[in-house]
Amino acid sequence: MAKIRNLAFRDIPELKKMISMISNLSSADVGFGYKSYVPFPLNLINRFLPLRFKFASDSYVAIEDNKLCGLVTLKPQEKNPQSWRISKLFLDENGYDTGRQLVSYAIAKYGAMGANTFTVKVDENHEELLELFSKGCGFRVCASEQLWKMNEIKLSSPSLDKGFFRPFKNSDASAAAGIYNELIFPHFRYSLAKTPKEFENIVCSGLHRTSFFKYVIEDSSKHSVKGYFSIQTDDNKNFILNIDLVSAFDDYFGDVINFAISQILIRKKSFNLYVRNKKYQTNGSKIEKYLKEKGFENIKNRIVLVKDYYKRVQEDERYSKPAIAFSEISRKPAFKTADYTKSSL
User: Fold this and answer.
1) Structure confidence at residue 315 (pLDDT)
2) Which of 62, 156, 227, 312 has CB atoms 3.0–4.6 Å from 217's, for a disulfide?
3) 169 and 281: one domain?
């Protein structure tokens, strides 16, 4: 069994070598992979902080026979310390058991600190990784996310007046969370729902690697928010559009894409636009059909897997279970070992 500890600076050369030998990774993935290390003293401070105060990801490595054979990185969901996602998992050849050990260790550690939900998104073609999380680590498949690319960037004639669009404000967070959660299929809602704080703007957003431009669709006559969408980018060249619209505004999906293009054009003349379709939402199939008809290219499908650390008690137990009692052996003479029954062990 491998020994698990925090990622240290001395591990970087060996980690870099291990990741570079994984054949199905691109050079960009390799470069980003070994940047999991958070420099000292930030890593030490972050390590001992309670969940609600952690500000960086945490990485753990598995060491066997003095050789680094795996790494797992957990990243906190912004402004939700109870929800964490596994953002990186690198394993040496034949590392199934090591991966199971690493993931189980991380979940047990953070679950004991108060984390409730753990998620991971895996490419649908990566069967070994899907099996590791589902069968080896007890994650359950929720649904999938699709990434569609707009092959030809062009503006179309809008059907919705621009007056409906305005920049997002933190006071819109509750409405945005309500729309997002309402769209999730009920049986996924417990694990995938978001809190209003997760939609609020990030303080000192300019220091973050990912930039977000957020907007809402508002019916000003009723002072009611009908939709929320964000444009995110890591490199100011590739932009990903996330859209959540109430059912009555589904037909304005194209107007949102059109408005997003106009906003990006203000900052960048040449770029790539992608649309994320969340298949765990009730309008996922409708959006997929629209994107196909408009000539978008489906370039990636990821399976969303979830593990809830605290399972809700089911009220309708079908099968009765025997009572279990356990007590440490007492040294008192009056208490005999014969008092123990098989069911108490």
Assistant:
1) 38
2) 227
3) yes
